[in-house]
Each structure stands twice: as structure tokens, then as C-alpha cells.
Amino acid sequence: MRPAFAAQDAASRPLYIVRPDELAQFLSHQSAARFLQDSGFRAALGEMRLIPGPDGVACAVVGYGTSDARARQRFGIAKAVASLPAGVWHLEGTLSPTEMDEAALGWLLACYRFDRYRPSSHSFAQLKAPVPARAAQILAMAEAEFLTRDLINTPAADMGPDELEVMVFALAARFGAKASVIKGEDLRRQNLPMIHAVGRAAAAAPRLLDMSWGHSGPHLTLVGKGVCFDTGGLDIKPASGMLLMKKDMGGAATILGLAQMIMQMNLPIRLRVLIPAVENAISGNAMRPKDILTSRKGLTVEVNNTDAEG
Question: For the segment 172-199, what is each residue's pLDDT rounded down to a tens digit?
């Protein structure tokens, strides 16, 4: 799924965002003031009330909370999205353009669902971009987060080193970047022995994925751990420790989301992305505890635990 804003010309209902210190002034201009007071509304972060009208819900009010509360929970008002009736909404309030942007981003992120294996029929309320001129940037940030979450949520059977490579090359093709890969025994030949050692026992060959984009601006290199599944190797994890190891490539997923955002926003950066993509598996040629490996830099590294591959 992809995040999206509703059309600017669509009919919509207001969602009022209210700070605690402006609640009294807000109530003085609201016909529903008595309802809000009687219901105990205090404008706490994410606290929401639906205001009835002659044809159903006329509007909604959500609390913005204190600055301390927002520091602890950045997208606190986003939880209100799930409680809103379906349809199109727009934001109202005294928030700055930057705060409105953040509220809109939180709204989009709250609509994320991982539906690759079980399509969702849930219909979320739609939002108009509060600052139309910034809609593309907000969408780029939301899409980057959706990509990161999708990669991490996908199980290793469908997101191993081979699939991660396909994804990197597809991302490069989409934005005109250059991508290359060093794989299998070529890692040894090109003096990348540590990546090879970690992933050599898996059915899918270990590899280093390399993507470059941009021709001006400062250099930025992002390196993300791409252990697509981590059994722990010969120092095997217990079942409980292995349960969520599809997420051990979360570093790679995070930098790919960030790289997509940078390219989509066309930021003036010379970007390079490096992902060692492996599966830490077990077979006859797996690295062993107390093996001594020689790194690309020439340092020797003693393996005290094969689950310390990161």
C-alpha cells in the first residue's frame, strides 16, 4: 500500500487540533462547548471527541497535549485517526505550518497496514494536505517509512539476500541510480572476507550491495546491516530468540527508506548506500567459535560467538 492525501477540492469535515492552554478560548467559540466540558475533554495528547450534527458527525476535536507529552510521543494525535468516521477531513487549529506537516505525517503513518499476505478491507478516514505546497515532501517521508516497515515485516522466505538485491536494483532503476553487487566467492577475491564468512553457510550467497546517486553536494554514505535471518549460526539461538530474526535486516531497511526519501525529494546530496546482505545460517562450512578471520583492513578477529555477526 502507499500513503495518499485526499483531493484538495473534496468536501471535508474539520478536525480541530487544540492545545491545553487554548482550550478555554476554543470552547468560547464552540456551540458544542457544553458537550466537550461534560465529557471531560482536557485537550490531552491524542484525546478526541466526535461532535454530532444533524446528519451524523459534524466535526471532531483532538488534543495536542503539552510539549512534554509530545516529546515522549511525537505522533500522539495520530491514534485518533482510527476512531474517525470514513470520509475526507481537514485540519484546523493554531498549529504552525511545520506542526501541521508533522500532524499530517503522523496521520499517514497511522494508516499503514502490512497487507501483502492478508489484504485489509479497513477504510481509514482521508486527509487533505494541510499545506498543499508541502504535500509531495510529506508523502515522500511517509512512503519511505512504509518501505522500511514492509521490508522488515516481510518474512525471510520472501526477503532473503536474493530478494533484497532485487529490491535495491529496482530502487536504483526507479531513480536513475547506479547499483552493483559483489557476490559469493567474488567477496574473497575482492578482499571482503568478513561478509563472506558470515553468510557462506546459507543457500543464498552472501553479497555486498552498492548503490550510488547524485552528482553534486556533500557526500553521504549509508551502511545498513542486511542479515536477512539470523539463526545465531553454530551458537544457535533458542526458539524464542529466533522468532523475530526476520527483522535483523532492519538496518538495511532503514537506510533504504532514507535513500528513497532523499532521491524522491531530489536533495542535493551525493549518496552512496552499502548493504552487506547475508543469512547467518548453519551448514558444514559455517564459521565456528574460535575461528580467526582476517578483515579487509588486515586485522585478525577471533570469533567468540557466531551470533555476534553484526
Answer: 999 999 999 999 999 999 999 999 999 9
